[in-house]
Amino acid sequence: MCVTSPWLPVTVALRALAPRERIAAIADPGSVQPVDASFDAPRPSPHLARWGIAAQDDDGVVIARAAIGGAAVLVAAQDERFLRGSAGANHGDALRRLFVRGRAERPAAVIILAASAGVRLHEANPAELALARALTALLDLRAAGVPVLVLSVADTFGGASVLACAGERTALLPGVRLGLSGPAVIETTRGPGELDAGDADAVTALFGAEARAAAGHVELVAADAEAVRAWIARCVRESKPFATWVRTRQEELAARLALTQSPGVRAAGERAAVELATTPALPLPRKLASLYADAEPVDRVCWLWRMRDRRVWLSRPFGLGTFGPREAHGLDAALLVHLAGGAAADGRTVFLVGDSYGHEVSRNAEALCVSQYLAQHSAVVALLRAQGVRVCGLLTGVGHSGAFFANALQAREVYALADARVIAMEPAAIARVIRLPEREIAALIENDPLLGHPVRHFAGWGGIAEILPDADRDRLLALVERGVSPRPTSR
Description:
21 helices, 2 domains, 7-stranded mixed sheet, 2-enoyl-CoA Hydratase, Chain A, domain 1, 491 residues, alpha/beta, 41% helix
C-alpha cells in the first residue's frame, strides 16, 4: 500500500524508526509504493518454527519503490528487531529479486538501509546460499550501470557487512558498528588478549562508525532524513562506471595494505610493500597435485595458474590458511592483470578453487576492514563475468564462512568434490544459537539438511551444480567443453 503519511521532520533519528518508517522518512512525500505484489506477499521463513521461533511475514526486510529528490529509486530496509536483522533464505532471496528487478527497471539508484547480523544461523545452508546469490545480483546490477548505495542504519556484521561494502558508496550513521567478525567471535577464536568483547571503548575503536570513517573505510552521515537525502543525491551525481570503480578501489586497498608495513618496506615502493604483505602460498594439497600438474603460475605469489596451451585458469586454494585482506588483494591483483579487459575474453574460463579455514578472524583484519577486501574480490569476479569470462567455483575441501561466500560461491556454476564440506555454521555457533546438547549437535552436523556440513546437504538446496568424484584434470576440461550448466533448482 502507498505510504501517504507526511514526510517526517528532517531531524528525525532514523535509528529509532521501523524499516517502513525509515523508507518514508528519506523518500519524497507520498512516493513510497510497493515494487509489485510479489514483494508485498508474505514470505515467512519455513525453518524457524523448528527452533520455537515465530516467523515474520517479511522475514526481516522491507522492499519498496520511492522517489528521492524526484529520482526513482528502489529501496530495501532490513529490520534489526527481528533476529538482529539476520538474512534467512527468504530474506536473501527478496534482496536478490530486488537487484534483478533493478537491472530491468534501471532506477536512478538502488538503496539498502542495512541493519543485519549477517547470515541467519538457524537456516545455515539455504541462508548462506541466498545471501551469496543476492551479493552476486547486486554486483551484476552495478556492472550494468545502476548505482547501489548502502547506508548502515544499525549494526551490520557477517555476510551482510560484505554486502554493504559491495555498494558503490557505503555510509554509516553515527554509533553504528560494521565488521565481518563480531567482537565475541574474535575473542572466542583468538582470546581476550586479541580483543576483549566486554571492553566497549576497544570495540567502538575497532568497529564504530566514527573510527571507520576516520580510517577512510566508509562515509559518516548524520542520522536525519535531510542529510541522508543529500548524501544519496550526491552519490547518484558522482557515480562512476563499474570497471573504473573496481580498479580505483584496488589501488585504495593496496595503499591501505602498504601502510601496515614498516617504514623501510614502504620506502621500497607501494607495489613491493603489498607483495611482501601478501602471505606466500602454502604447498598445494596432495589430492590436487594432478589438477595443477599441467598448469603454471602466472603471478609471483602463485595465486593464479594457467593450464598450458589452454584458456583455462585456476586460483590456488588457501588450504590451511585463511582468506583475509592480503590473500584477497593478492588474488585480485592477479585476476585483474591476467583476465580482466583485453580484446579476447570469450573462451576464457577461471575456476575459483575453494578450500580454506575461512575468512581471517583477527583484530588486524578488522582494522583493515576485511569486509571491504572480500567485497572487492566479489566485485572483481563480477567484472570478469561482465567482460565475458566464464567463472566457475570448485570446492575441493572446506567451504568455510566468508571465504566461501565471497569467493567460489560467487561463481554461476559451483562444482564440488564428494568429500568437500560447507561450514556455514561452526559447532560452537550451533551450540550458542540453537542451544542443543553436544551429542545432538554432532548428529546435526553430519545429517541435517539445514545445518549439515557434508557438501551433499548444500547441494540439496541448489548450491552445487555437480558433485565430482575427484579432482581430475580431464574431467574439469570436459566441464569447460560442455559449456555453462544451468543453476540447479533449489528445493
